[in-house]
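sry for the spam today, last one i promise. C-alpha coordinates for design, 435 residues
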Protein backbone atom coordinates (compact mmCIF):
# COMPACT_ATOMS: atom_id res chain seq x y z
CA UNK A 1 0.00 0.00 0.00
CA UNK A 2 1.14 3.57 -0.68
CA UNK A 3 1.35 6.03 2.21
CA UNK A 4 1.93 9.78 1.87
CA UNK A 5 3.14 11.39 5.10
CA UNK A 6 2.60 15.16 5.16
CA UNK A 7 4.01 17.91 7.34
CA UNK A 8 1.78 20.84 6.36
CA UNK A 9 2.90 24.43 5.80
CA UNK A 10 2.40 25.90 9.25
CA UNK A 11 0.89 29.33 9.82
CA UNK A 12 0.43 30.67 13.34
CA UNK A 13 -1.21 34.02 12.65
CA UNK A 14 -3.22 35.06 15.70
CA UNK A 15 -2.21 31.94 17.61
CA UNK A 16 -1.08 31.44 21.19
CA UNK A 17 1.57 29.01 19.87
CA UNK A 18 4.91 29.69 21.54
CA UNK A 19 7.10 27.10 19.84
CA UNK A 20 9.63 27.95 17.16
CA UNK A 21 8.01 28.83 13.83
CA UNK A 22 11.02 27.84 11.69
CA UNK A 23 11.20 24.56 9.78
CA UNK A 24 12.24 21.40 11.64
CA UNK A 25 12.66 17.79 10.61
CA UNK A 26 9.30 15.98 10.94
CA UNK A 27 10.96 13.05 12.69
CA UNK A 28 7.68 11.31 13.43
CA UNK A 29 7.08 11.04 9.68
CA UNK A 30 10.58 9.74 8.94
CA UNK A 31 10.28 7.07 11.62
CA UNK A 32 6.88 6.09 10.23
CA UNK A 33 8.29 5.93 6.69
CA UNK A 34 11.09 3.67 7.87
CA UNK A 35 8.73 1.34 9.70
CA UNK A 36 6.22 1.18 6.84
CA UNK A 37 8.92 0.33 4.33
CA UNK A 38 10.18 -2.44 6.57
CA UNK A 39 6.70 -3.96 6.33
CA UNK A 40 6.66 -3.80 2.55
CA UNK A 41 4.67 -0.60 2.03
CA UNK A 42 5.67 2.39 -0.10
CA UNK A 43 5.94 5.65 1.85
CA UNK A 44 6.66 9.23 0.78
CA UNK A 45 7.39 12.14 3.14
CA UNK A 46 6.11 15.51 1.89
CA UNK A 47 7.42 18.42 3.95
CA UNK A 48 5.17 21.25 2.82
CA UNK A 49 6.50 23.56 5.51
CA UNK A 50 10.11 23.24 4.37
CA UNK A 51 9.28 23.49 0.67
CA UNK A 52 6.58 26.15 1.10
CA UNK A 53 3.87 24.09 -0.53
CA UNK A 54 0.26 25.12 -0.28
CA UNK A 55 -2.25 22.57 0.96
CA UNK A 56 -3.34 22.07 -2.65
CA UNK A 57 0.23 21.57 -3.90
CA UNK A 58 0.98 19.04 -1.16
CA UNK A 59 -2.23 17.18 -1.95
CA UNK A 60 -1.30 17.15 -5.65
CA UNK A 61 2.06 15.54 -4.79
CA UNK A 62 0.30 12.89 -2.74
CA UNK A 63 -2.05 12.22 -5.66
CA UNK A 64 0.84 12.02 -8.14
CA UNK A 65 2.42 9.43 -5.85
CA UNK A 66 -0.83 7.47 -5.92
CA UNK A 67 -1.31 7.55 -2.16
CA UNK A 68 -3.93 5.23 -0.75
CA UNK A 69 -3.37 6.41 2.83
CA UNK A 70 -2.39 9.98 3.68
CA UNK A 71 -1.11 10.91 7.14
CA UNK A 72 -1.06 14.54 8.35
CA UNK A 73 0.44 15.69 11.62
CA UNK A 74 -1.64 18.23 13.55
CA UNK A 75 1.36 19.93 15.20
CA UNK A 76 4.84 20.78 13.95
CA UNK A 77 7.40 18.06 14.71
CA UNK A 78 7.69 15.93 17.85
CA UNK A 79 9.72 18.78 19.35
CA UNK A 80 6.52 20.83 19.75
CA UNK A 81 3.87 18.21 20.41
CA UNK A 82 4.11 19.22 24.08
CA UNK A 83 3.22 22.86 23.31
CA UNK A 84 1.14 22.70 20.12
CA UNK A 85 -0.97 25.43 18.63
CA UNK A 86 -4.49 24.76 19.96
CA UNK A 87 -6.19 25.44 16.62
CA UNK A 88 -6.60 22.87 13.83
CA UNK A 89 -6.94 25.36 10.98
CA UNK A 90 -3.86 24.19 9.04
CA UNK A 91 -4.65 20.50 9.42
CA UNK A 92 -8.22 21.15 8.35
CA UNK A 93 -7.06 22.91 5.17
CA UNK A 94 -4.69 20.03 4.42
CA UNK A 95 -7.43 17.43 4.74
CA UNK A 96 -9.86 19.48 2.66
CA UNK A 97 -7.35 19.67 -0.19
CA UNK A 98 -6.59 15.95 0.13
CA UNK A 99 -10.27 15.04 0.04
CA UNK A 100 -10.55 16.88 -3.27
CA UNK A 101 -7.43 15.34 -4.84
CA UNK A 102 -7.78 11.85 -3.37
CA UNK A 103 -11.46 11.23 -2.67
CA UNK A 104 -10.96 7.52 -2.07
CA UNK A 105 -7.83 7.67 0.10
CA UNK A 106 -7.91 7.01 3.84
CA UNK A 107 -6.99 10.24 5.63
CA UNK A 108 -5.22 9.90 8.97
CA UNK A 109 -4.46 12.51 11.66
CA UNK A 110 -1.59 12.06 14.10
CA UNK A 111 -0.53 14.45 16.82
CA UNK A 112 -1.29 15.81 20.29
CA UNK A 113 -4.82 16.99 19.48
CA UNK A 114 -6.12 13.57 18.56
CA UNK A 115 -4.21 11.97 21.41
CA UNK A 116 -6.29 14.04 23.85
CA UNK A 117 -9.57 14.41 21.94
CA UNK A 118 -9.76 11.87 19.13
CA UNK A 119 -13.40 12.25 18.08
CA UNK A 120 -13.35 16.03 18.17
CA UNK A 121 -10.15 16.10 16.13
CA UNK A 122 -11.70 13.83 13.54
CA UNK A 123 -14.80 16.01 13.38
CA UNK A 124 -12.87 19.27 13.11
CA UNK A 125 -10.39 18.11 10.47
CA UNK A 126 -12.63 15.86 8.40
CA UNK A 127 -10.14 12.98 8.47
CA UNK A 128 -11.12 9.31 8.57
CA UNK A 129 -8.78 7.97 11.25
CA UNK A 130 -7.19 9.47 14.34
CA UNK A 131 -4.14 7.89 15.96
CA UNK A 132 -3.74 8.37 19.70
CA UNK A 133 -0.19 8.50 21.01
CA UNK A 134 2.98 7.84 19.04
CA UNK A 135 2.39 6.80 15.41
CA UNK A 136 5.88 5.55 14.47
CA UNK A 137 5.15 1.82 14.49
CA UNK A 138 1.40 1.51 14.07
CA UNK A 139 0.43 3.13 10.76
CA UNK A 140 0.65 -0.18 8.94
CA UNK A 141 -2.56 -1.13 10.78
CA UNK A 142 -4.42 1.39 8.61
CA UNK A 143 -3.88 -0.96 5.68
CA UNK A 144 -5.74 -3.56 7.73
CA UNK A 145 -8.80 -1.33 8.09
CA UNK A 146 -8.22 0.08 11.58
CA UNK A 147 -10.53 2.90 12.66
CA UNK A 148 -10.08 5.53 15.36
CA UNK A 149 -7.40 4.15 17.60
CA UNK A 150 -8.53 3.91 21.20
CA UNK A 151 -5.18 2.82 22.62
CA UNK A 152 -2.34 5.22 23.37
CA UNK A 153 0.58 4.00 21.28
CA UNK A 154 4.12 3.87 22.67
CA UNK A 155 7.04 3.20 20.37
CA UNK A 156 9.80 0.68 20.97
CA UNK A 157 12.69 3.12 20.58
CA UNK A 158 15.22 0.31 20.07
CA UNK A 159 13.36 -0.57 16.87
CA UNK A 160 13.88 2.85 15.27
CA UNK A 161 16.93 2.58 13.03
CA UNK A 162 19.08 5.48 11.86
CA UNK A 163 17.26 7.73 9.38
CA UNK A 164 19.34 8.27 6.23
CA UNK A 165 17.46 11.31 4.80
CA UNK A 166 18.55 10.29 1.27
CA UNK A 167 15.31 11.51 -0.31
CA UNK A 168 14.94 14.62 1.80
CA UNK A 169 15.72 18.02 0.19
CA UNK A 170 18.56 18.72 2.59
CA UNK A 171 19.69 21.74 0.58
CA UNK A 172 16.64 23.58 1.94
CA UNK A 173 17.74 23.01 5.55
CA UNK A 174 19.37 25.98 7.26
CA UNK A 175 17.64 26.54 10.60
CA UNK A 176 19.73 25.81 13.68
CA UNK A 177 17.29 25.49 16.54
CA UNK A 178 18.09 27.55 19.62
CA UNK A 179 21.29 29.05 18.20
CA UNK A 180 21.24 32.82 17.91
CA UNK A 181 24.49 33.74 16.16
CA UNK A 182 26.78 32.50 13.43
CA UNK A 183 25.95 30.44 10.37
CA UNK A 184 25.57 26.79 9.45
CA UNK A 185 23.04 24.11 8.66
CA UNK A 186 21.01 22.39 11.33
CA UNK A 187 18.87 19.32 11.86
CA UNK A 188 17.09 17.58 14.71
CA UNK A 189 17.83 14.16 16.21
CA UNK A 190 16.23 12.14 18.99
CA UNK A 191 18.36 10.17 21.47
CA UNK A 192 15.71 9.50 24.13
CA UNK A 193 11.98 9.93 24.44
CA UNK A 194 9.84 10.73 27.44
CA UNK A 195 10.62 11.91 30.94
CA UNK A 196 10.59 10.21 34.35
CA UNK A 197 9.21 13.33 36.09
CA UNK A 198 5.56 14.44 36.15
CA UNK A 199 5.59 18.25 36.24
CA UNK A 200 2.01 19.48 36.36
CA UNK A 201 2.34 21.85 33.39
CA UNK A 202 3.98 19.35 31.02
CA UNK A 203 1.86 18.10 28.15
CA UNK A 204 3.47 14.70 27.62
CA UNK A 205 1.10 12.31 29.35
CA UNK A 206 -0.70 11.07 26.23
CA UNK A 207 2.43 10.72 24.08
CA UNK A 208 6.18 10.73 24.66
CA UNK A 209 5.55 9.94 28.33
CA UNK A 210 7.50 6.87 29.47
CA UNK A 211 11.26 7.40 29.35
CA UNK A 212 13.02 5.29 26.69
CA UNK A 213 16.40 5.28 24.99
CA UNK A 214 17.51 4.72 21.42
CA UNK A 215 20.70 2.69 21.06
CA UNK A 216 23.70 5.01 21.15
CA UNK A 217 25.18 3.39 18.04
CA UNK A 218 21.98 4.18 16.12
CA UNK A 219 22.00 7.81 17.23
CA UNK A 220 25.66 8.26 16.32
CA UNK A 221 25.08 6.64 12.91
CA UNK A 222 22.26 9.10 12.25
CA UNK A 223 24.33 12.11 13.36
CA UNK A 224 27.32 10.98 11.30
CA UNK A 225 25.09 10.58 8.26
CA UNK A 226 23.75 14.10 8.65
CA UNK A 227 27.31 15.42 9.03
CA UNK A 228 28.30 13.76 5.75
CA UNK A 229 25.45 15.63 4.10
CA UNK A 230 26.63 19.04 5.24
CA UNK A 231 24.79 19.39 8.57
CA UNK A 232 27.04 20.92 11.21
CA UNK A 233 24.57 21.47 14.05
CA UNK A 234 22.23 19.00 15.74
CA UNK A 235 19.44 19.80 18.16
CA UNK A 236 18.41 16.89 20.36
CA UNK A 237 14.63 17.00 20.74
CA UNK A 238 14.73 14.82 23.88
CA UNK A 239 12.38 16.07 26.58
CA UNK A 240 15.24 15.83 29.08
CA UNK A 241 18.68 15.25 27.60
CA UNK A 242 21.02 13.64 30.12
CA UNK A 243 18.60 11.24 31.83
CA UNK A 244 19.96 8.16 30.09
CA UNK A 245 22.59 5.96 31.66
CA UNK A 246 24.18 5.93 28.22
CA UNK A 247 24.69 9.71 28.15
CA UNK A 248 28.47 9.48 28.82
CA UNK A 249 28.78 6.97 25.97
CA UNK A 250 26.82 9.25 23.64
CA UNK A 251 28.94 12.30 24.54
CA UNK A 252 32.12 10.32 23.97
CA UNK A 253 30.84 9.26 20.53
CA UNK A 254 29.89 12.83 19.60
CA UNK A 255 33.34 14.25 20.39
CA UNK A 256 35.07 13.24 17.12
CA UNK A 257 32.10 14.14 14.87
CA UNK A 258 32.21 17.50 13.03
CA UNK A 259 29.00 18.78 14.59
CA UNK A 260 27.94 21.02 17.43
CA UNK A 261 24.66 20.43 19.26
CA UNK A 262 21.97 21.90 21.48
CA UNK A 263 19.82 20.35 24.19
CA UNK A 264 16.98 20.92 26.62
CA UNK A 265 17.59 19.46 30.06
CA UNK A 266 17.26 19.83 33.83
CA UNK A 267 20.18 21.52 35.52
CA UNK A 268 19.84 19.20 38.53
CA UNK A 269 20.93 16.27 36.35
CA UNK A 270 24.42 17.72 36.05
CA UNK A 271 27.48 18.53 38.10
CA UNK A 272 30.47 20.70 37.31
CA UNK A 273 32.49 17.87 35.79
CA UNK A 274 29.65 16.50 33.65
CA UNK A 275 28.82 20.00 32.41
CA UNK A 276 32.45 20.38 31.36
CA UNK A 277 32.20 17.04 29.52
CA UNK A 278 29.02 18.24 27.84
CA UNK A 279 30.76 21.33 26.52
CA UNK A 280 33.81 19.33 25.42
CA UNK A 281 31.54 17.02 23.40
CA UNK A 282 30.32 19.98 21.34
CA UNK A 283 27.29 21.36 23.18
CA UNK A 284 26.84 25.03 22.29
CA UNK A 285 23.25 25.60 23.47
CA UNK A 286 21.66 24.48 26.73
CA UNK A 287 18.11 25.33 27.75
CA UNK A 288 16.67 24.26 31.07
CA UNK A 289 13.44 24.82 32.93
CA UNK A 290 13.85 26.25 36.42
CA UNK A 291 10.12 27.18 36.50
CA UNK A 292 10.22 29.16 39.77
CA UNK A 293 12.77 31.15 41.79
CA UNK A 294 11.61 29.52 45.02
CA UNK A 295 11.60 25.95 46.30
CA UNK A 296 7.90 26.30 47.17
CA UNK A 297 7.13 27.49 43.66
CA UNK A 298 8.97 24.57 42.08
CA UNK A 299 7.09 22.22 44.40
CA UNK A 300 3.76 23.69 43.27
CA UNK A 301 4.66 22.79 39.69
CA UNK A 302 5.64 19.29 40.90
CA UNK A 303 9.09 19.89 39.47
CA UNK A 304 10.77 17.33 41.73
CA UNK A 305 13.89 19.48 42.08
CA UNK A 306 15.69 19.16 45.43
CA UNK A 307 18.31 21.84 44.82
CA UNK A 308 18.23 25.22 46.49
CA UNK A 309 18.63 28.45 44.52
CA UNK A 310 22.31 28.96 45.30
CA UNK A 311 23.19 25.50 43.96
CA UNK A 312 21.06 26.03 40.85
CA UNK A 313 22.83 29.32 40.14
CA UNK A 314 26.26 27.74 40.68
CA UNK A 315 25.46 24.96 38.21
CA UNK A 316 24.16 27.44 35.64
CA UNK A 317 27.37 29.43 35.99
CA UNK A 318 29.42 26.25 35.56
CA UNK A 319 27.38 25.42 32.46
CA UNK A 320 28.05 28.88 31.02
CA UNK A 321 31.78 28.39 31.50
CA UNK A 322 31.64 25.35 29.21
CA UNK A 323 28.77 26.21 26.84
CA UNK A 324 28.33 29.46 24.84
CA UNK A 325 24.56 29.79 25.30
CA UNK A 326 22.82 28.83 28.54
CA UNK A 327 19.17 29.70 29.12
CA UNK A 328 17.04 29.29 32.25
CA UNK A 329 13.26 29.43 31.86
CA UNK A 330 10.59 30.48 34.33
CA UNK A 331 6.83 29.92 34.37
CA UNK A 332 4.47 32.62 35.62
CA UNK A 333 2.87 31.74 38.94
CA UNK A 334 0.25 33.77 40.77
CA UNK A 335 2.17 33.63 44.06
CA UNK A 336 5.61 34.49 42.70
CA UNK A 337 7.43 37.49 44.14
CA UNK A 338 8.12 39.97 41.33
CA UNK A 339 11.11 41.52 43.11
CA UNK A 340 12.66 38.10 43.75
CA UNK A 341 12.23 37.20 40.09
CA UNK A 342 13.84 40.46 38.97
CA UNK A 343 16.79 39.95 41.31
CA UNK A 344 17.25 36.35 40.21
CA UNK A 345 17.19 37.29 36.54
CA UNK A 346 19.69 40.09 37.08
CA UNK A 347 22.04 37.74 38.92
CA UNK A 348 22.05 35.30 36.00
CA UNK A 349 22.14 37.83 33.18
CA UNK A 350 25.13 39.55 34.81
CA UNK A 351 26.91 36.19 34.57
CA UNK A 352 26.17 35.74 30.88
CA UNK A 353 23.17 33.41 31.31
CA UNK A 354 19.89 34.28 29.68
CA UNK A 355 17.06 34.08 32.22
CA UNK A 356 13.65 34.42 30.63
CA UNK A 357 10.79 36.47 31.90
CA UNK A 358 8.17 34.14 33.37
CA UNK A 359 5.97 32.78 30.59
CA UNK A 360 2.26 32.07 31.04
CA UNK A 361 1.22 28.45 31.40
CA UNK A 362 -1.36 26.89 29.08
CA UNK A 363 -3.40 23.99 30.46
CA UNK A 364 -3.08 21.69 27.46
CA UNK A 365 -5.81 19.05 27.36
CA UNK A 366 -4.32 15.82 28.64
CA UNK A 367 -1.73 17.50 30.87
CA UNK A 368 -1.82 17.01 34.66
CA UNK A 369 -2.66 20.71 35.01
CA UNK A 370 -5.72 20.39 32.76
CA UNK A 371 -6.76 17.23 34.60
CA UNK A 372 -6.58 19.00 37.97
CA UNK A 373 -8.62 21.95 36.72
CA UNK A 374 -11.25 20.28 34.56
CA UNK A 375 -10.96 16.51 34.65
CA UNK A 376 -10.62 14.31 31.58
CA UNK A 377 -10.65 16.15 28.22
CA UNK A 378 -14.02 16.28 26.47
CA UNK A 379 -15.27 17.76 23.20
CA UNK A 380 -14.84 21.32 24.48
CA UNK A 381 -11.42 20.76 26.06
CA UNK A 382 -9.40 22.96 23.71
CA UNK A 383 -12.00 25.75 23.69
CA UNK A 384 -12.16 25.67 27.49
CA UNK A 385 -8.39 25.75 27.98
CA UNK A 386 -7.98 28.46 25.36
CA UNK A 387 -10.71 30.73 26.73
CA UNK A 388 -9.28 30.51 30.24
CA UNK A 389 -5.78 31.22 28.92
CA UNK A 390 -6.96 34.36 27.12
CA UNK A 391 -8.91 35.47 30.18
CA UNK A 392 -5.94 34.96 32.49
CA UNK A 393 -3.72 37.05 30.23
CA UNK A 394 -6.24 39.68 29.19
CA UNK A 395 -4.11 42.41 30.73
CA UNK A 396 -1.00 41.25 28.91
CA UNK A 397 1.67 38.77 29.88
CA UNK A 398 1.91 36.66 26.75
CA UNK A 399 5.32 35.39 25.74
CA UNK A 400 7.13 37.69 23.32
CA UNK A 401 7.12 34.91 20.70
CA UNK A 402 3.33 34.66 20.73
CA UNK A 403 0.90 36.86 18.85
CA UNK A 404 0.47 40.10 20.78
CA UNK A 405 -3.32 39.81 20.60
CA UNK A 406 -4.20 36.13 20.04
CA UNK A 407 -7.65 35.25 18.77
CA UNK A 408 -10.36 33.11 20.29
CA UNK A 409 -10.10 29.48 19.25
CA UNK A 410 -13.44 29.72 17.46
CA UNK A 411 -12.00 32.51 15.30
CA UNK A 412 -8.76 30.65 14.66
CA UNK A 413 -10.51 27.53 13.47
CA UNK A 414 -12.18 28.51 10.22
CA UNK A 415 -14.33 25.48 9.48
CA UNK A 416 -17.03 25.01 6.88
CA UNK A 417 -20.60 24.47 8.00
CA UNK A 418 -20.61 20.69 7.69
CA UNK A 419 -17.48 20.16 9.77
CA UNK A 420 -18.57 22.76 12.31
CA UNK A 421 -21.81 20.83 12.66
CA UNK A 422 -19.94 17.54 13.07
CA UNK A 423 -17.69 19.08 15.69
CA UNK A 424 -20.76 20.30 17.56
CA UNK A 425 -22.18 16.77 17.51
CA UNK A 426 -18.92 15.39 18.90
CA UNK A 427 -18.96 18.05 21.57
CA UNK A 428 -22.57 17.41 22.47
CA UNK A 429 -21.91 13.73 23.14
CA UNK A 430 -19.08 14.39 25.58
CA UNK A 431 -19.16 14.47 29.33
CA UNK A 432 -19.49 17.97 30.74
CA UNK A 433 -16.90 19.44 33.09
CA UNK A 434 -16.98 22.35 35.50
CA UNK A 435 -16.04 25.71 34.02
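last one done:
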Amino acid sequence: MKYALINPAWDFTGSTYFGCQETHLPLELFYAQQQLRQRGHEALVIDAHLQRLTAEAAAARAAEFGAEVVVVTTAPTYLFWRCPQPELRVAHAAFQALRTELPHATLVAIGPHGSATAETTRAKTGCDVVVRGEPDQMLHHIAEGAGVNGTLQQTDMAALGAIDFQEYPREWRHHRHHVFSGEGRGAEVEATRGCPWSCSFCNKTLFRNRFRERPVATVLEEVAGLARRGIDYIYFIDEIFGCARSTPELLKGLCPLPVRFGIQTRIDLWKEDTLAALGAAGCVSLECGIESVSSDGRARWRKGCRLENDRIINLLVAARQAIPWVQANLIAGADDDASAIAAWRTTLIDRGIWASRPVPVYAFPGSPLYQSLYGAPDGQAWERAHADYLKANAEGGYSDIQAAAPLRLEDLEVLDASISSSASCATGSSTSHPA
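The chain has two domains: 2-157, 159-355. ok im logging off now
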